[in-house]
Amino acid sequence: MTITTLSRQNIQALTPYQSARKLGGNGTIWLNANEYPTSPKFQLSGKDLNRYPEPQPQRVVQAYANYAGVSTENVLVTRGGDEGIELIIHTFCEPKTRCHFILSSDLRNVCSEC
């Protein structure tokens, strides 16, 4: 049994989104990332205030992978626990079925009507 076989069929069939930045784009305007093309006139102190943060900040991913002794491919950074739980539920629960996860002994059981 693998993580792939546990995930929903429609999730397995998805093609992952690849942003221009992730593909190695080197432009200065990232309209595909829904970002404002120029910094606001009231610049505070940084030239990149008009940029969204990296979806998977490599320094954070690498630091945690080193700490946990795992490959960076096994690390996912989320914007809080709720986002992580939502990703798990949407990946492994079929719609309109009941799903139960036991994440670890220090976390409560997560139950959801998907």
From TrEMBL:
GO terms for molecular function: histidinol-phosphate transaminase activity; pyridoxal phosphate binding. Its cofactor is pyridoxal 5'-phosphate. Pathway: Amino-acid biosynthesis; L-histidine biosynthesis; L-histidine from 5-phospho-alpha-D-ribose 1-diphosphate: step 7/9. Its EC number is 2.6.1.9. It comes from the Bacteria. Pfam families: Aminotran_1_2. It is an enzyme of class 2 (transferase). Residues 29-97 form the Aminotransferase class I/classII large domain. This is histidinol-phosphate transaminase. It comes from Haemophilus influenzae. The gene is hisC_3.
